[in-house]
Amino acid sequence: MTLTNQDIVELTAWRRKLHQHPEVSNEEQRTAEEVVNFLENTGPDRVLTSLGGHGVAAVYESGMAGPTVMFRSELDALPIHEVSGAAHSSLVPGKSHMCGHDGHTAILAALGRQLGRRRPARGRVVLMFQPAEETGNGAAGVVADPRFGEIAPDFAFSLHNLPGVPLGEVRLKSGVVNCASRGMRIMLAGKTAHSSMPETGVSPMMAVSQLMPALPALGNGTFADDDFSMVTVTHATMGEAVFGIAPGHAEVWATLRTKRNDLMASLCAAAEALVTSIADKNLLSAQYDYHETFVASVNAPEAVEQLRLALDEERIVHAQDNLPMRASEDFGVFGHNAASAMFFLGAGEQHPALHNPDYDFPDDLIPIGSRVFMRTLRNLLG
Fold it and tell me: Does the pLDDT of residue 1 top 70, yes or no?
């Protein structure tokens, strides 16, 4: 049930190796190979590679009938230049593990090491190393892969480290824990003109200035409300970076966010109607498309109870504070066909925030996270 001191030393060193060689979403080939190589000595009964991209699933069989229990981590890093100053800082300029996916992967590798010493008494365990969480297409790609049907879980569990929460404490609740979101790219087209004669063209300037406040105004309620929705303008560009041309095209990017999946369609419809109306009034044509689509992550009560039992048995402090979160997480896709739950493991109250350039995963969380998962596994499968 526990890691040895040597295990922790080796897992920490391996985590830091992953940290030095980050790969962003949909490019995680080397990271996936590292996982396969690290798990080789644990003797998984089956290893599936290239799942939904560069995903890896290691399967540990008991040989007895029983449920399939999946534990998931993420492989991808972010396009952020690291400034943490750590000795194991990223060696890849402009890319880094600023969300802690390297640490989550080390926690799953710790499970593999323990399963290599003792298989479950019944059922089977799947360690799912998922690609492309940051772009929202990773979990969906894994589930859409025909081979996933061969290892489809009855229970699915995951964790995410959470700065702002005391180190090693857990936040956990049933129901929604992460919002649904999607990125909307709005493209406006008019007609360029010489900057000395802007009246001869059709500029998107007024439309962009109108969209900036109008899009956020589509949001509804406070975050405490069940029907909460939110729109955040994240990027805008217009014309060319020159002084001699009045612009004839523009783009506005916005992130649409809802607490419930069923509200996203109506928020998208409202945003589309707004764009069309403003474009028409300004004699522009408009197009839009969507990117980085995340469904809400919803924790199933029966899966949460399994995690709570494990936390109590391991004497780890847990509460419901800080949940749900506005941020999105694609683990929710696995909950469509399994009893799933994610918990949030405190990275320290003063720890740099996720996606900040000075963030680094706290290595002390590797044995804590693996204890929770291993206790959950043994409670379910023996």
Answer: no
Asked if residue 285 lies in contact with residue 185, where contact means CB atoms within 8 angstroms, the answer is: no
> What is the maximum span of the chain, computed from C-alpha positions, in angstroms?
79
Q: Where are the domains of the chain?
A: 5-178+296-381, 180-294
Q: Can you tell me the distance from the alpha carbon of 73 to that of 105, in angstroms, rounded to the nearest whole number?
A: 5
Residue 350 CA to chain centroid, in angstroms? 22
Please report where in the chains the tokens 């890093």 appear, as a residue: 77
The whole-number pLDDT of residue 2 equals 84
Say which residue the tokens 């900040």 belong to.
356
Backbone φ and ψ for 288, nearest 5 degrees, come out as -155, 150
C-alpha–C-alpha distance, residues 129 and 216, integer Å: 36
H/E stretch holding 214 reads: helix 205-214
99 is in an annotated binding site: yes
Q: Which amino acid is residue 327, in one-letter code?
A: A
235-240 average pLDDT score: 98
CATH superfamily of 5-178+296-381: Zn peptidases (3.40.630.10)
What are the structure tokens assigned to 75, written together?
């492989």
Fold match between domain 5-178+296-381 and domain 180-294: no
Mean pLDDT of 21-37: 98
Ligand-binding annotation for 268, yes or no, is: no
- Give tens-digit pLDDT for 326-381: 999 999 999 999 999 999 999 999 999 999 999 999 999 999 999 999 999 999 99
179 is in an annotated binding site: no
Cα 333 to Cα 331: distance, rounded to the nearest angstrom: 5
Give me the CATH code for the 180-294 domain, please.
Answer: 3.30.70.360
